[in-house]
Amino acid sequence: MRSVTLALGVHVGQQNLRMDELRALWRHLDASGVDWISAWDHLYEAPPAGGTVPHFEAVATLAALACETTNARIGCLVFYVGYRNPGLLAKAAATIDHLSGGRFELGLGAGWHEWEAEAFGYDFPSIGTRLDMLDEATRVIRGLLTAPDEPDQIHRTTFEGTHVRALNASALPTPVHGHLPIWIGGVGEKRTLRMAARYADGWNAAYIAPAEFARLGEVLDRWCETEDRDPATIQRSINLLFAAGSDADSAARNEGALRDQWGPMFERVAGGALLGTPEQAVEQILAYRDAGADMVNIALRAPFDADALDAYLGDVMPAVRNATA
Asked: Domains (ranges, CATH) in the chain?
């Protein structure tokens, strides 16, 4: 088993909340000592509801998040590379990094929300093509967000791919700390995990059970061996649907609400949901620690149980940290 110091984060969906409510939530999370706060990259709500739920765009949201917080690392899990030119996304990432004082980390993925892509006129090709796009975009973004070896040099990136190109491009200013961490999100064993081994500083999975997370971690380790990469240099994180309660009664209500929210998709994501009482939530999080997670993020979708969130921040997080100290 890998030796793990467990970070605890919150993945906040920027939907069904006013911006002043989001800003207050971010400040509350930051003051409560979470290690990570992230947003997602959607144009419609998730799970899909036909564009009937108010939802904010990711880049602008993350800029506000950077300015409202001072302690937690921040990021996006994950940007779909089909929505933005990679050079533009790299420039946005560097800008957010400077707004945050060097706390930003960039997540990239192949996307899944075909309904919003169709609604807004974006191509949404086959998964194989989207993975090709992810590979090419990650290579260009990694190049653009790499600081030169010497301070007086300018790092330039040239790339000619099927979907992405760059010609002698520079991205100034460089990230605050010189190297901006990149996360690859997804659970595809043949291509996504190999891209994580080849390019990424971190790998993120969503809504899978501890045993499956551990198995995929072993696949990632094998790809690291193929790529001549030390597996210990890749952070591993898991996003969990948040449906725990402050007590047994609220836990039962929240699990029922989660079932209603996800409908027929519930069974696909239920293995990666945080359920039960605070004591049971602690046990579930530690199971992911034992499965190799470096970070566990709860995913909030409004409306959520505020008392349950307070119990998580005030009771669950300290108990987990005491158990992993």
From this structure: 7-324 (3.20.20.30)
